[in-house]
Specification:
Shape: elongated
CATH superfamily of the largest domain: Nucleotidyltransferases  domain 2
Order of helices and strands: HHHHHHHHHHH
Structural class: mainly alpha
Radius of gyration: 31 Å
Helix content: over 70%
Distance between the termini: 48 Å
Strand content: under 5%
CATH architecture of the largest domain: Up-down Bundle
Largest sheet: none
Number of helices: 11
Number of strands: 0
CATH topology of the largest domain: Four Helix Bundle (Hemerythrin (Met), subunit A)
Number of domains: 2
Length: 277
């Protein structure tokens, strides 16, 4: 199955390379952005719970994940793409919009805005995969390890898209492993048990904190006493430490509140469990 998916990945990348040849700047930009949009949708679909009907509906025209921008943001906030990929995809989206919404822009050089955006397209170090290795690794003998060997705005755009095509396709394998599972609601008695466990954990953490604070304050008090200074500043500081120790010891009184809460929840749990019988 994994080999089939790897073959599908190569087939897709080869098909894209074929499509990119002899395309106008406008058509090439729109094609690249559309494919990246499709890849993000597939990544999200793979990651969401297994419910084909609902998962596909969320990408329809009236739904929140219909736009390229929304998919970029959702993928980032779910931890499915990096911050760099988020930034790069956003730049590509803006370049796509420039070409799509202006009939006067034929080439990259026709718009200062597009040129400025292209200057910010960067492929991270050690992440460039030459197309020769992807398309035909066995026959690839010479390839340029510098993606921007042709320092034109068009080449910078194409190479950045190639880098994203490759990494987003491989991301599909990762999202399959991390696919979310549909949430199963707990029964009321299970929730009460969980609440009791959380309360006990909070009580134990508080106890440890109180003990740690008390030890530190006692060490400070002992050190101050050993100095045997009889000045007003030392006496005042000693009084402050004694007061802090008293305050910390008073916090032990909250243990009773925790115990009362735990006992109350145990009684509720018993009542609920009994009612299920």
């Amino acid at each position: 199955m994994k080999k089939k998916k790897q073959k599908d990945l190569l087939d897709v990348l080869i098909a894209i390379e074929t499509e990119l040849e002899n395309k106008s700047n406008r058509a090439m930009v729109i094609l690249c952005a559309s494919f990246l949009d499709f890849q993000l949708e597939e990544i999200l679909f793979n990651f969401f719970i297994k419910n084909n009907k609902l998962s596909k509906e969320i990408f329809e025209s009236h739904m929140p994940l219909n736009t390229f921008s929304a998919k970029i943001s959702m993928c980032y906030y779910l931890g499915l793409i990096s911050m760099h990929e988020h930034r790069t995809l956003t730049i590509i989206r803006k370049i796509r919009n420039e070409f799509a919404h202006s009939i006067n822009i034929i080439k990259f050089e026709d718009s200062q805005s597009i040129k400025d955006l292209c200057k910010n397209l960067i492929i991270p170090n050690k992440m460039y995969v030459p197309k020769e290795l992807i398309i035909n690794a066995e026959k690839a003998q010479k390839f340029d390890t510098n993606p921007f060997y042709d320092d034109t705005f068009k080449n910078r755009f194409i190479q950045t898209c190639r880098y994203l095509f490759f990494y987003l396709n491989t991301r599909l394998f990762d999202t399959e492993k991390e696919k979310r599972k549909e949430y199963v609601a707990k029964s009321s008695d299970e929730i009460i048990v969980q609440m009791i466990e959380h309360t006990i954990s909070a009580r134990d953490k508080l106890k440890k904190t109180i003990q740690r604070c008390r030890k530190l304050l006692i060490v400070k008090r002992n050190k101050l006493n050993m100095r045997c200074d009889d000045n007003e500043i030392s006496k005042k500081r000693l009084d402050e430490i004694e007061q802090e120790i008293c305050d910390v010891e008073k916090m032990h009184e909250s243990d009773a509140d925790f115990e009362d809460r735990i006992e109350s929840m145990k009684l509720i749990h018993e009542a609920i469990t009994e009612s299920y019988k």
